[in-house]
Amino acid sequence: MPQYTLNINKTSYDVVAAAGTSLLWVLREDLGLTGTKYGYGISQCGACTIHLDKQPIKARLLPIEQFTAGQEITTIECLSEDGDHPVQRAWIEAQAPQCGYCHSGQIMQAVALLEQKEHPTLDEIKAHMNDNLCRYGTYMRILTAIEMAAKTKNSTS
Ligand code: FES
Question: Model pTM greater than 0.70?
């Protein structure tokens, strides 16, 4: 099988995988980065959202051969060592999760927004978060958390 060199969370990894293997499986199964979740499996719910060069992308349907060592892949494990990134703190303060399954992706999506725009409007937040679904409908608390994070932080990852 071919070998790929990936830059994930500021670390270089050599991964052996069949062509066509989803980046999500490489993250979860090969590298143990299980913070990124498998949702509906068709890149529609956003549970598998990560960052590629600081832009949010859905890892599920992206084949491993699409990535190069020069690209920066970031998962939720890299936001902060202690889970205290400003967006994560706001998430806890707003009690955003219900079951919590969708929230790694929600947080990664939100962090990308706040890195691009420190103080987005509510409409901008809604538009940016539109593709991240929550089966428990915690949307109001998610919006609250993002507004709280925007008020209290300069987002870093
Ligand atoms: S809190 Fe469980 S899917 Fe959103």
Answer: yes
